[in-house]
Design brief:
The protein is an all-alpha fold and 221 residues long. It folds into 2 domains: 1-109, Serine Threonine Protein Phosphatase 5, Tetratricopeptide repeat (Alpha Horseshoe); 130-221, no CATH class. Helices cover 76% and strands 0% of the residues. Helix 3 packs antiparallel against helix 4, helix 4 (91-107) runs antiparallel to helix 5 and helix 5 runs parallel beside helix 7 (147-159). The longest helix has 46 residues, at 2-47. The radius of gyration is 23 Å and the shape is globular. The model is unreliable at 7-25 (pLDDT under 50).
Length: 221
C-alpha cells in the first residue's frame, strides 16, 4: 500500500517542478528581451540619434513579447511607456505612453521614475489640470535624491511656475536645490531655457564649482 501513496506524492512534485521550470524559462526570456531593448534605447539616448521606424518597431515588439511572458514585471510596461514617449511628436504616442505608465504604476506604485514619466506624458498632452500638480509632489516625495526626478521637476516646475500652487512650488524648489548640489550646470541650463534663472541662481554663490564659469556673472546681474 505504500507504493501508490508514494506515487501520489511524487506526481504533484513533478507537476510543480515542471510548472516552475516553464515559468523560469518565461521570466528568463522576458528579462533577456527587456535587457536588449533597454540597451538599444540607451544607445539612442547616448548618441542623440532618433531610431528609424523599423528599429523602433522591433524594440516595441520585443517589449510587448516580454510583457506577455512576464505580465507582473513593472519594468516592462515602463519601458514601453518610455519608448512611446520618445516618439511623442504625435499625441497618440503620448497617450499610449500614459497607458503603459499607468500599468507600471499599478504594479509598482512607489517608483518615483514612473511618476515622473506620468507627469511628462501628461504635460506633453496638455493635461496639466488636477491631479498633475499632485503627481509632481508625489514624484519629489518618493525620489528626492534621484537625478531624473530632479531634472523633470525642474523642467516642468519652471515651465509652469506662474500657475502652480505653493505646495507644488515647494516640491519644485526642493528638487532644484538638490539638483544644484548634484549637477548645477544641468539645472542652470534648464532654468535659463525656461526663463527662470533667478530660481536657480540663488544657489550659485558659494559654489566653488561655478566660480570660474559664466554663471557667476549672469547670476549677479
Amino acid at each position: 500500500m505504500e507504493r501508490p501513496s508514494r506515487v501520489l506524492m511524487v506526481v504533484p512534485a513533478i507537476a510543480t517542478l515542471a510548472f516552475v521550470c516553464v515559468w523560469a524559462v518565461r521570466w528568463g526570456t522576458a528579462d533577456a528581451l527587456a535587457y536588449g531593448a533597454t540597451r538599444e534605447m540607451n544607445t539612442w539616448t547616448a548618441t542623440g540619434v532618433t531610431p528609424g521606424i523599423d528599429t523602433w518597431m522591433w524594440v516595441r515588439s520585443d517589449l510587448q513579447r516580454a510583457e506577455r511572458l512576464s505580465p507582473s514585471n513593472p519594468a516592462v510596461p515602463e519601458l514601453l511607456g518610455v519608448l512611446h514617449l520618445q516618439r511623442a511628436g504625435r499625441a497618440e504616442f503620448s497617450e499610449l505612453a500614459l497607458e503603459h505608465f499607468a500599468r507600471a504604476l499599478w504594479l509598482r506604485p512607489s517608483s518615483p521614475y514612473t511618476w515622473a514619466n506620468v507627469a511628462e506624458a501628461r504635460y506633453r498632452l496638455g493635461m496639466t489640470q488636477a491631479p498633475f500638480e499632485d503627481i509632481l509632489v508625489v514624484t519629489q516625495r518618493l525620489g528626492p535624491s534621484e537625478p531624473e526626478t530632479q531634472r523633470l521637476l525642474a523642467e516642468l516646475g519652471f515651465a509652469m511656475w506662474d500657475e502652480i500652487r505653493p505646495e507644488t512650488k515647494q516640491a519644485v524648489a526642493a528638487a532644484v536645490a538638490a539638483g544644484m548640489r548634484r549637477n548645477p550646470l544641468e539645472i542652470l541650463q534648464i532654468a535659463e531655457r525656461r526663463g527662470r534663472l533667478g530660481l536657480a541662481c540663488a544657489h550659485v554663490p558659494g559654489d566653488r564649482r561655478l566660480q570660474e564659469t559664466k554663471w557667476v556673472r549672469i547670476c549677479s546681474v
